[in-house]
Amino acid sequence: MVRIGADTGAPEERRLARAWFQDAAEVSYPDLALLGRVTRRERLDALFEAHWLHPERRLWFAVEPSQGPVGLAWVQASNHAVSDLPDWLVVCLAVAPACRGQGIGRALMGHVRAQAACHGVARLRLYVAAANAPARHLYEALGYTAGVVEMTCRLDPA
């Protein structure tokens, strides 16, 4: 049975959060692959540190007693960039590949929703890659709807 608990500040939790953050970013932002290897690493390190050091960071791990951490939900208080409405931004939802499809992501997001309600947060916001069908299906099943859709047009021959 998976248990959900807040991060304890252990170095192993930070290492897992960094690895899962990178995996999620690379799936959600394929243009990171266009950056040079060192530049990509530096960019991901800078993004991770900015979110990790955010004063209102909240991080919860899903822990399977026999396996240890198998997923995480990471949010931070924010304000929408355009409307300035307060919300919690879901920085990262991650589930270990071997544990996907077992309801862990759903449980983590349910925990996020419950915690947000306890703190008087009226809105959750997240970003998901259009091509990430499993994640989009989960979020839609949980009541998330698409807002702004980012569209790009490549002008260089790729």
Walk me through the topology:
Elements: E1 3-6, H1 11-28, H2 37-52, E2 57-64, E3 68-79, E4 86-95, H3 104-118, E5 124-126, H4 133-141
What does this structure look like?
The chain has helices at 11-28, 37-52, 104-118, 133-141, and strands spanning 3-6, 57-64, 68-79, 86-95, 124-126. The N and C termini lie far apart (46 Å). A five-stranded mixed sheet has the order 1-2-3-4-5, sandwiched between helices. It is built from four helices and five strands. It is of the alpha+beta class and 158 residues long. Strand 2 and strand 3 (68-79) form a beta hairpin. 37% of the residues lie in helices and 23% in strands.
Poorly predicted ranges (pLDDT <50, ≥5 residues)? none
How many β-strand runs? Answer: 5
How would a crystallographer describe the biggest sheet? 5 strands, mixed
Radius of gyration: 16 Å
Percentage of residues in strands: 15-25%
- The chain-level structural class is alpha+beta
Q: Return the string of H and E elements.
A: EHHEEEHEH
Estimated helix fraction: 25-40%
User: How far is it from the N-terminal to the C-terminal residue, by CA?
Assistant: 46 Å
H/I helix tally: 4
| Strand line-up of the largest beta sheet | 1-2-3-4-5
Q: Mean pLDDT, as a whole number?
A: 90
Rough outline: globular
